[in-house]
Design a protein that fits this description.
The structure is a single chain. The chain is α+β, with helices and mostly antiparallel strands. The protein has five domains: about 5-195, no CATH class; about 215-250 and about 310-460, Rossmann fold (3-Layer(aba) Sandwich); about 255-305, no CATH class; about 495-655, no CATH class; about 665-790, no CATH class. It is about 25% helix and about 20% strand. The chain is built from 21 helices and 35 strands. It has a seven-stranded mixed β-sheet with strand order 6-5-4-7-8-9-10. The two termini are about 55 Å apart.
């Protein structure tokens, strides 16, 4: 989303840009420096709102209007937000959009009733982070970062946003849906409880002196890592790394260390440090002793300090640095940060497709960041960007932690060599527990030390999984939009399309899916079925559309997907920009179009068309919807439509029964995973299937929404769209994925490797192809054995 789209203001809306003539604008721009509720009062100045957006950027942004209303409701002495919201909702109530702002007003009243302490200082940011963490219509953190960069380079572009446009219903729907949070936060206390997941105590009005963190506090943090099953493997390595770590830590300079006594006396220093007996001398004697440096002082003169570098740690999160090497990388980073002799702050970035600032100061932060993985094989591009664009200053001391195989990559080698002056330390990890430390000094790389960790010994006794009560207010585990393999194509569909040689599906779950067919012979009863037809990837979720009438799909000049809908019974044709959610419609009652007309796409336009009738109607793709009546048959349009219908009809044979309602998950007496009454096993040789379970379950996973956790901490996360995510408590076993379809051949894939039926293989795969037996042995069986071994 561009800056102008996010900050755009609208006519007859509940907020607007204004200019306070008495206050200079930020970045030297005086105009549009204030956000306001029309006819009511000010919300906040622009610099304050931009600071809030900077704080929210790592988790993504809510719609701008929703954010402003919450900020306004947090103020003491606000005047009114009910009136403007109701007026805006009434003004934009048209067509199929029947807006009502009562739910949103009810939620804002809860913000008003929050105790003052939760709306002050840093707690104000925490409150916003809590409310909008999983909200509707969020802008991703990547897009938010891009918008911020554009803003600070060109803040004057806000002036264009201040020019009010006529809003379409989508803009208001975007803001209101993000404010409808009554289900997530039914009471004022529920908001406070949710905030306490981020802050333990409300911030006090009285100023207190914050105690400096000590080595004992760091030891407690290491103990917490060891006691948590999900971070046990990282935590158990840190003290062993400490015992062998030889890299230099920050020390106080000798002059700052109070030694005392005769050994600390000097003949140079400040007069306030001179010993009292010197002042007892006569004036001439005193001046003579000072001039000849014979006077005695009680503390040595502090020597000039060496240059202090900012210490930064870069952790490789590419595909090559997954599994055990990644565990070693995070353990090494925490060992450096939390070392008892380390006296300065340290910034940490995860490198993948881009650099992401992360924190490793809490157990939950370590858990979250351990699951970060980037789809790139190596991070040379992100590493180069880090030095050239983001951190071009010289006074930085960088640690780069990566898999030892990545150092052999030519691109990575080149970036490391070009930036060796600032890339002070290179740390490499290996699957067998070996960590090597290198230092760049005067243009050359020197091997400092090698640490070989006995992983089997250190990971022999993992902690027992903490028992948790299934909280009815807990939220579902977040799911990615897509996976390294395809989703199974659903049987039930609203519509199917062929656009410029590519197949698309509008599913009953209101998703836009993309699939493809292979040119293989089709035999429904043979394995060739899984070579001809393929699964799908999700392009868009939660499309605002009613499943009725006829549909056509195309792309506009900006390459946005445009979904056209024709409802003959309502005499209504409409267009929805799926990317921007812009909607427009037109009533066709006066045209008397027969019900036999069909909606189609052809040559950069939509058409209402009936083969036997020479009269047809052209519908534009770009801009607001409009119709043009055309007389005379178009033979090319006829041929194209017939061919397209024949091609799309092939998709009717593609569709598998998906398990979308997950109940019990466990391990049966035959040591196989059981998913909702179906066993994950093999009905055929060298194949994987989900078929009816006939054996007793001996180990049952605990369910929390869509996450099932075994006693050892291993997890299976379910995706109702047709996917299972396996995360072992043994971080040496990579995260892997298996589709959830019954009585069909399945696949098993990690971020790097793939085994099983080609049905789930992407059209342009980057995965290494392996046999199913090899993938089952190294991942599925290892996952099950980890759980069984813990039980014994």
């Amino acid at each position: 989303m561009e800056l102008k789209v996010y900050f755009q203001s609208y006519e007859n809306y509940f907020w607007e840009w204004k200019t306070d003539e008495d206050v200079p604008g930020d970045s030297g721009y005086h105009e549009n420096n204030l956000l306001s509720v029309p006819g009511v009062g000010a919300i906040a100045y622009r610099p304050y709102i931009m600071e809030i957006l900077k704080e929210l950027q790592p988790q993504g942004w809510p719609p701008f209007g929703a954010l402003l209303m919450v900020v306004y409701a947090m103020q003491d002495g606000y005047i009114d937000f009910e009136g403007p919201l109701r007026r805006t909702a009434d003004f934009y109530r048209i067509g199929n959009f029947d807006f009502n702002a009562e739910k949103e007003i009810k939620f804002l009243e809860k913000i008003k009733l929050l105790p003052k302490v939760y709306k002050q200082k840093q707690n104000r940011v925490v409150l916003l982070q809590t409310l909008f963490k999983n909200g509707h219509n969020r802008i991703s953190s990547v897009n938010a970062e891009a918008i911020l960069k554009i803003y600070y380079k060109r803040p004057h572009e806000i002036s264009g946003c201040a020019e009010k446009l006529n809003a379409n219903p989508t803009a208001l729907n975007r803001d209101l849906s993000a404010l409808d949070l009554n289900r997530e936060f039914p009471t004022v206390q529920s908001i406070i409880d949710a905030m306490k997941g981020i802050i333990e105590e409300p911030e006090l009005d009285d100023e207190v002196v914050q105690e400096e963190a000590t080595a004992d506090a760091d030891k407690d943090f290491i103990r917490e890592l060891i006691e948590e099953p999900k971070t046990f493997q990282v935590g158990s390595l840190i003290k062993r790394i400490w015992s062998g770590l030889k890299i230099p830590m920050r020390h106080l300079s000798p002059g700052e260390q109070p030694i005392g006594g005769i050994s600390d006396m000097t003949n140079k220093g400040d007069f306030n440090r001179m010993i009292l007996s010197e002042f007892a001398n006569e004036d001439e004697v005193f001046m003579n002793r000072v001039a000849n440096n014979e006077a005695l002082y009680i503390q040595r003169e502090i020597p000039p300090e060496e240059n202090i570098f900012e210490r930064i740690i870069l952790i490789d999160t590419s595909l090559r640095n997954w599994g055990t090497p990644k565990v070693l990388a995070f353990a090494s980073a925490i060992a450096i940060i939390k070392h008892p002799k380390a006296h300065s702050e340290c910034k940490v970035f995860a490198l993948g497709q881009a650099e992401i600032s992360i924190s490793l100061n809490k157990v939950e932060e370590v858990v979250e960041n351990l699951n970060q993985v980037s789809p790139v094989l190596e991070v040379s591009e992100a590493l180069e960007k880090f030095f050239k664009e983001e951190h071009s200053e010289k006074d930085i001391e960088v640690f780069f932690i990566t898999h030892q195989e990545n150092v052999a990559d030519e691109k990575v080698q080149k970036v490391i060599h070009e930036n060796r002056d600032r890339l002070r330390f290179l740390v490499t990890t290996a699957s067998d527990g070996e960590i090597n430390f290198y230092k760049h000094h005067k243009g050359t790389r020197k091997h400092i030390q090698k640490i070989k960790l006995p992983l089997q010994e250190l990971w022999a006794n993992p902690p027992r999984q903490k028992q948790t009560v299934n909280n009815v207010n807990s939220k579902k585990t977040d799911l990615p939009q897509n996976y390294p393999i395809l989703f199974p194509t659903p049987v039930n569909k609203i519509a199917q399309f062929l656009y410029e040689g590519e197949f698309y599906i509008l599913s009953v779950k209101k998703q836009l899916l993309k699939t493809y067919l292979s040119d293989n012979y089709y035999d429904r009863n043979s394995y060739d079925y899984y070579k001809t037809f393929h699964g799908c990837e999700v392009l868009f979720d939660n499309i605002s559309v009613k499943p009725r009438g006829q549909f056509a799909l195309a792309k506009n000049k900006q390459q946005h997907f445009i979904l056209c809908q024709y409802q003959p019974d309502k005499k209504l044709v409409s267009k929805l920009n799926i990317n921007t959610k812009e909607y427009s419609e037109q009533n066709l009652t006066g045209l008397n179009i027969p019900d036999s007309y069909k909606l189609i796409y052809f040559s950069k336009n939509f058409y209402l068309h009936q083969p036997e009738n020479p009269l047809y109607y052209k519908i534009n793709i770009d801009g607001n919807i409009s119709l043009e009546t055309i007389s005379g048959k178009d033979k090319e349009l006829e041929r194209n439509n017939t061919k397209a219908e024949a091609e799309v009809a092939k998709l009717n044979k593609n569709g598998l029964k998906i398990i979308s309602n997950f109940t019990k998950i466990g391990i049966n007496e035959n040591h196989n995973i059981v998913i909702s009454g179906n066993v994950l096993g093999s009905l055929y040789e060298n194949a994987l299937t989900l078929h009816k379970n006939q054996s007793d379950i001996i180990i049952l996973a605990e369910q929390d929404k869509n996450k099932f956790t075994f006693p050892d901490g291993s997890e299976i996360v379910t995706d109702a769209r047709g996917m299972l995510i396996f995360r072992s408590s043994n971080k040496g076993i990579e995260e892997f994925f298996i589709p959830s379809t019954t009585y069909g051949l399945l696949s098993l894939a990690t971020y790097i490797e793939f085994g099983g039926t080609e049905y789930y293989l992407p059209e342009h795969p980057l995965l290494k192809i392996k046999t199913m037996e090899d993938m089952r042995s190294r991942f599925l069986k290892a996952f099950i054995e980890q759980i069984l071994d813990y039980g014994t």
